[in-house]
From TrEMBL, chain A:
One Pfam assignment: tRNA_Me_trans
PANTHER family in UniProt: MITOCHONDRIAL TRNA-SPECIFIC 2-THIOURIDYLASE 1 (PTHR11933:SF5), TRNA 5-METHYLAMINOMETHYL-2-THIOURIDYLATE -METHYLTRANSFERASE (PTHR11933)
The species this protein was found in: Streptomyces wuyuanensis
The protein's Enzyme Commission number: 2.8.1.13
Site feature Interaction with tRNA, where: H134, Q347
Protein name from the UniProt record: tRNA-specific 2-thiouridylase MnmA
The protein's role, per its UniProt record: Catalyzes the 2-thiolation of uridine at the wobble position (U34) of tRNA, leading to the formation of s(2)U34.
Localization per record: Cytoplasm
Keywords: ATP-binding, Cytoplasm, Disulfide bond, Methyltransferase, Nucleotide-binding, RNA-binding, Transferase, tRNA processing, tRNA-binding
Gene: mnmA
Residue ranges annotated for the tRNA-specific 2-thiouridylase MnmA-like central domain, each copy included: 217-282
InterPro entries attached to this UniProt entry: MnmA-like, MnmA-like_C, MnmA-like_central, MnmA-like_central_sf, Rossmann-like_a/b/a_fold
Active-site residues annotated for this sequence: C109 (nucleophile), C208 (cysteine persulfide intermediate)
UniProtKB/TrEMBL annotation, chain B:
Taxonomic lineage: Bacteria, Bacillati, Actinomycetota, Actinomycetes, Kitasatosporales
Domain of life: Bacteria
Entries under InterPro entries matching the protein: Aminotrans_V_dom, Cysteine_dSase, PyrdxlP-dep_Trfase, PyrdxlP-dep_Trfase_major, PyrdxlP-dep_Trfase_small
Name listed for the protein in its UniProt record: Cysteine desulfurase
Residue span(s) of domain Aminotransferase class V: 3-370
Amino acid sequence: MTETRQRPLRVLAAMSGGVDSAVAAARAAEAGHDVTGVHLALSANPQSFRTGARGCCTIEDSRDARRAADVIGIPFYVWDLAERFREDVVEDFVAEYEAGRTPNPCLRCNEKIKFAALLDKALALGFDAVCTGHYATVVLREDGTRELHRASDMAKDQSYVLGVLDERQLAHAMFPLGDTLTTKDEIRAEAERRGLAVAKKPDSHDICFIADGDTQGFLAGRLGRAEGDIVDESGAKVGTHDGAYGFTIGQRKGLRIGRPAPDGKPRYVLDISPVNNTVTVGPAEALEVSALTAVKPRWCGTAPSGPGTYTAQLRAHGGETEVSAELVDGELRVAFTEPVRGVAPGQAIVLYDGTRVVGSATIAATTRRQSHVTA
Amino acid sequence: MAYLDHAATTPMLPEAIEAMTAQLAVTGNASSLHAAGRRARRTVEEAREALAEALGARPSEVVLTSGGTEADNLAVKGLYWARRAADPRRNRVLACPVEHHAVLDAVDWLAEHEGANVEYLPVDSYGRVHPEAFREAVERDPSDVAFATVMWANNEIGTVMPVRELADIAAEFGIPLHSDAVQAVGQLDVGFAASGLAAMTVSGHKIGGPYGIGALLLGREYTPVPVLHGGGQERHVRSGTLDVPAVAAFAVAGRLAAERREDFAREIGALRDRLVGAVLDAVPDAILGGDPDDRLPANAHFTFPGCEGDSLLLLLDAQGIECSTGSACTAGVAQPSHVLLATGTDPDLARGTLRFSLGHTSTVEDVEAVAKAIGPAVERARTAGLS
């Protein structure tokens, strides 16, 4: 189970302008591949400069990526995928929130943009693979099939947001940072050693197309304010909100409920109902989920035939939990060994067998110990 | 390597490099009064005389600038401000829509910040401004026209403009006409005095001279309001210490461009025709941009239906063929060319363009490399499609 690609490939390196993708491109070039850098312009109206540590769509980022490509000594282009990104990622993001779900746009971007629109164009132009700065490992097995595994360093692992890739996409994916058992500081040191000026650039966080990090404000701008009730489990009104779409199941902050709960404990968002624009809140215990169903399953390899036991990850940077899962009529039925809290419909569940990514699906409904929630 | 992007910049001529390097070790500010200053001034003035002779102008009409962009800005803004100051009714600017951005954006800036009423002249499918259309625009109200600007030849599609006829019409109404001749020098006869222009932009690095040097040829009766204020150099319209080595080398390149122009135009035109023939043979549905006959002899521009120009660029670059899509970038993203859009080209079609521009180092081998590579590249780019 080692990376055995030795043949020089024509590689298209997606370069965000950040340190990870720059080092990834440099490593691919150093490994002897014929690398071309490409920066994806994902915003129709790019900002000139980054504000704080956010975003990856500014003109400055594009220049940083170009500068890194020049230092590595590879050709560099900017490809305009703003329209595809808007349709497949931004609009999907807004529609999902509008429907009361909590989407993961990074996952959607990997599925629809980096390893679809970009990969398809790369393959058509004669490239063999797309290289990114993700921390995950592709393993080429002796039978020629490929597996996606967690990064060597679990703390940096990003296999969750790549869990949507199928085997064909994996066959053309290259993650040179995946076998890195080093800290981020060491990646920065490597960038420094390679003469890459992005070595000291802050990490990007949050959602790249919401430059100021204000997701609520972004959604309010897109969907308008729609005042509604916040109710408790009994249906009694405990507060008001400016739009049900602005909430995530398990959310505690920002509820602005004046009156404390009778038991004095914090209350969490239990349910979001876009139809009657109502947000239901309750105690932490009420968040506990014993099972879920997930739709649109995607498998990294062949789909499992019968029920199986896996570990599951339910959100980016989330922990692992043991589940049993089975594919029934195209839907994934998942039962948790121990109840888990804060499972939000719209997020992906990624199933693992050890370090290997088995597949993923989008959470559609959860079963609480008390009730059943669909959003 | 096949370098076919001479319209972006062309290699410096050995004679120009020699003139420049010789001056780099010499001290002297051409504005100083002492011996070192006098020596520098003599170099500058001899260079000015050589440039004037090469461009059919008087030495006093050569206003040295940092390049074509600055010369264009000085002409556009300076003439507008001066003409409007003389008569506040003059706020109309007649501009050609296929200009380089150095003119286009300066004109748009006047509209946004200085109350200019910018009127874009109609162009035909070759991107040419017709004298009748210009006359019609002027005659609607000659008294409110601040100035007009029409390039000598288009940098993307190569079409040559009827500059002398346009200048005659402008002169009839006492309206100054500026022309950006950056691409025309060395390929066409651009004699300034004979042109009847009020102002004409030229650039060093497009003719085998150094970067960062250019000139605005400026009729003696015009005093544009300066864009750069300072020491009062260059007739008080362009302040700044002169770059003596660059000026000296620019003059050598200008002289050689004039001396060699006829032979160069004939030879490069033949090579260009060969390239056009080869591309059309390999890709029969490619469309030659610009006027097929009355065009810059070193320019070949094509539209490849169903292709992204960027994809073609990448594929050719990978084979050592260096050319351009011809259009400007916004944040590095290629936009459909404003030139093609102005000629009425469909926006999707306008994305699949390539400009090959030849120059003094171009060879038959360069053309053969394109002939061999272009067919497969177009085929592949079509598979990748329009994203």
